[in-house]
Design brief:
Number of helices: 6
Number of strands: 12
Distance between the termini: 6 Å
Largest sheet: 6 strands, mixed
Helix content: 10-25%
CATH superfamily: Endonuclease/exonuclease/phosphatase
Number of domains: 1
Strand content: 15-25%
């Protein structure tokens, strides 16, 4: 089975490109983030016409997550228990899950943080902490659970995951607090399953020729529960998808599962 994650950066603008990519690469399940699409405008037919069922959770022109699957969509969940709200906005459209051929797939769009003094930064840490606590309970309840937490995490796990550590000094994505919040997941048993096979960057800003210069960050990944991690045998980052005209600034990450 091939499970992928991709921050598509507006699904209405890229639905045909996304579906064509899924067909071309024989993708069974795709977790999408930053769909930027209200639910009543989600391009459902683009997926259905190609044999993919889809669930989605939108929020106007920002945030938004979705899962497309050709191997089933069962036990759909919108958000997770204890998911924090942001200020007066409420609980944002940042998490959706479904069971696909026995694997519980989560599509997650972790808050960016914006700046270290912005309220979104504290919100980001609270959001990660709440998800880590909840996912630990899932594994405590069922150590053999098949779970993948896929998405745009907006955290670079190490200095090797950013093109220039000094550039990010005093910015989100690389702080000790963010990395500690991410490490909590591995402490509970989740593994960054694609890393041994696909250590490259996954996002390159549109400005200043970041992509041609390979000045990127690795912030998109799939954290697998122990039982699912044992089934992973390969992975890759599809840089070619980032090269396409009008592409998202993120590249998809594909996980191969036996």
């Amino acid at each position: 089975m091939r499970i992928a994650t991709w921050n598509v950066n507006s699904i209405r603008a890229r639905s045909e490109t996304v579906v064509a990519w899924m067909e071309r690469h024989d993708i069974d399940v795709l977790a999408m983030q930053e769909t930027k699409c209200p639910d009543d405008q989600f391009p459902v037919m683009s997926f259905l016409a190609s044999g993919y069922d889809v669930v989605f959770c939108g929020q106007g022109g920002f945030n938004g997550v979705a899962i497309a699957s050709r191997v089933g969509l069962e036990s759909v969940q919108y958000g997770f228990d204890g998911q924090p709200a942001f200020a007066d906005v409420g609980v944002e459209a940042r998490a959706v899950a479904a069971v696909c051929d026995g694997v519980q797939v989560w599509s997650l769009y972790v808050p960016n943080g914006r700046s270290l003094t912005d309220p979104h930064y504290a919100y980001k840490l609270e959001w990660l902490s709440a998800l880590a606590d909840r996912s630990a309970l899932w594994l405590a309840h069922d150590p053999a659970a098949q779970i993948v937490l896929a998405g745009d995490w907006n955290v670079a796990p190490t200095d090797d995951d950013v093109w220039d550590r000094t550039y990010f000094e005093g910015r989100p994505h690389v702080t000790e607090a963010e990395r500690a919040a991410l490490a909590a997941f591995t402490g509970h048993g989740f593994t960054d399953a694609a890393l041994p096979y696909a250590p490259g960057y996954t996002c390159w800003d549109y400005t200043q020729l970041r992509f041609p210069r390979d000045e990127g960050v690795r912030i998109d990944y799939l954290l697998c529960s122990p039982a699912l991690g044992d089934r992973v045998f390969d992975a890759h980052v599809d840089r070619n998808a980032r090269k396409a005209r009008g592409a998202s600034d993120h590249a998809p990450v594909v996980l191969e599962i036996s």
